[in-house]
Write a structure and sequence with these properties.
Length: about 250
């Protein structure tokens, strides 16, 4: 709002710079004028995100870019939907439902907290991907079918990428890393060496023939393991609902 309009007897600038309450005697014309000027020019401070402080006076204009400002019957003001327009927060820019940044994005929570991404389908696209919004790299889809919630996970949904989809073991950052599961996404490169396995490779959980998983039921039919001390070592075995059997000859383990 604009500053209040005043009429003074003689002063145009204030000469009162400190409190004198009570003065104990009559006010001079200059003191009376200065009191009015001080009241007109008083302000309050607003601390910005960069820790700088700004004095807000009666003629200061405060802008909320992209925000909706509403008032209720009591005159209370609500500023909402700031991110619905265009807003900048550091390297982040918000426009409608899109958040973009000039660099990478790190989402970090405390060691005892859980980071949750909640909503509808979740997609991972590359920068400038031609099929943006289709999960250029991956899609995690909630696809209800027949009254049940069915999670579908797609990788390379648009078929634009080669390379590998790899799951590493606990020593994944070492030169002899264990790879329990890997899918080759480049069929033309199949069979060209250890870095391009043919199709899919899987490492089955290993057991000895005297310490296979026990306490199973018929619901566990089809489980696969490998027997470390078989001959040759590492023969795969499956559970038929009652016994573990070698895949190659159907004999019991």
């Amino acid at each position: 709002m604009p500053k209040a309009k005043l009429v003074t007897r003689s002063a145009s600038t204030t000469s009162v710079t400190a409190d004198s309450i009570p003065k104990g005697s009559g006010l001079t014309n200059a003191e009376l004028d200065s009191n009015f000027l001080n009241l007109r020019d008083q302000g309050w401070r607003l601390r910005a995100d960069d820790s700088t402080q700004h004095t807000i006076t009666a003629d200061t204009q405060i802008n909320f870019d992209g925000a909706t400002i509403t008032t209720d019957s009591n005159g209370d003001i609500t500023v909402s939907n700031l991110a619905g327009g265009n807003a900048n927060t550091g390297n982040f820019t918000f426009s409608g439902s899109t958040m973009s940044t000039s660099g990478g994005i790190t989402i970090r929570s405390g060691s005892s907290n859980t980071t949750t991404i909640q909503g509808g389908d979740f997609q991972i696209d590359t920068n400038g991907s031609t099929n943006y919004g289709q999960g250029e790299l991956a899609r995690f889809i909630d696809a209800p079918v027949g009254g049940f919630n069915n999670m579908e996970i797609d990788f390379n949904h648009n078929g634009n990428y080669g390379g590998h989809f790899t799951v590493y073991g606990s020593n994944g950052q070492t030169s002899n890393a264990v790879i329990p599961f890997q899918v080759n996404l480049s069929p033309s490169g199949m069979g060209t060496g250890s870095e391009n396995p043919e199709g899919v490779i899987m490492q089955l959980q290993g057991y000895t023939d005297t310490a296979v998983p026990s306490g199973l039921t018929s619901d566990h039919k089809g489980m696969l393991i490998c027997i470390r001390n078989s001959s040759p070592a590492g023969q795969p075995a499956y559970y038929d609902g009652s016994d573990w059997r070698y895949v190659h000859d159907n004999s019991t383990v």
